[in-house]
């Protein structure tokens, strides 16, 4: 039974921008990224919002340096660089920060082969971003994050299934699973491989649509990129691209396109 449920509801955690005039934001801050809280201003200066002009927030991402943003491949597929902009330097989707143009989109050559695998991508900013107190890069961890580690998830994902997208950045501490435990709890083991890290605390907490591409951080270093889950916070693991597994791809892709 678990296998059937998972196959139906496991999805990529992106906000759909197709044929919708503009994203409606929630200004009340009553609901949180499922089970989380409003992030303190400046507490995640590496966090960015991938914006579709005329629509708004679509995915999250992380500044790796003054020119490159790491995100999920499924946030980039079907778009041209001119279709997307990057919002930096603010926790609010309504005010502050700076919108930056993008001149290159790159994602893993084996994205979604098989399904949910190799879901990692890079965006090159047209001009280098200026760092400040609210705009900083994040270092990524080249070693695998430990099992049962407390890690931090941030994003502007919906606060419940089909719920609102919050105006303010949300933050939630979650716990990493072993891949074996993740496969058992998901019920579809083929969706998880060495390139994934999974998290789970309890029902009522987790990632949701709009968190895709965003950061999972351990002791101040980037360890995961939001990929997929069973929306939202329903007691199943959330799946992230394991940054340590892809760090050579990230390093060489940036170097070859600098």
TrEMBL record:
Residues 1-17 form the signal peptide. GO terms for molecular function: serine-type endopeptidase activity. Residues 33-255 form the Peptidase S1 domain. The keyword Flavoprotein does not apply. GO terms for cellular component: extracellular space. It is found in: Secreted. It holds the Pfam family Trypsin. Keywords: Digestion, Disulfide bond, Hydrolase, Protease, Secreted, Serine protease, Signal, Zymogen. It comes from the Eukaryota. The keyword Repressor does not apply. InterPro entries: Peptidase_S1, Peptidase_S1_PA, Peptidase_S1_PA_chymotrypsin, Peptidase_S1A, Trypsin_dom, TRYPSIN_HIS, TRYPSIN_SER. Gene3D superfamilies: Trypsin-like serine proteases (2.40.10.10). GO terms for biological process: digestion; innate immune response; protein processing. Belongs to the peptidase S1 family. CLIP subfamily. This is AGAP006710-PA. It comes from Anopheles gambiae (African malaria mosquito). The lineage of its organism: Eukaryota, Metazoa, Ecdysozoa, Arthropoda, Hexapoda.
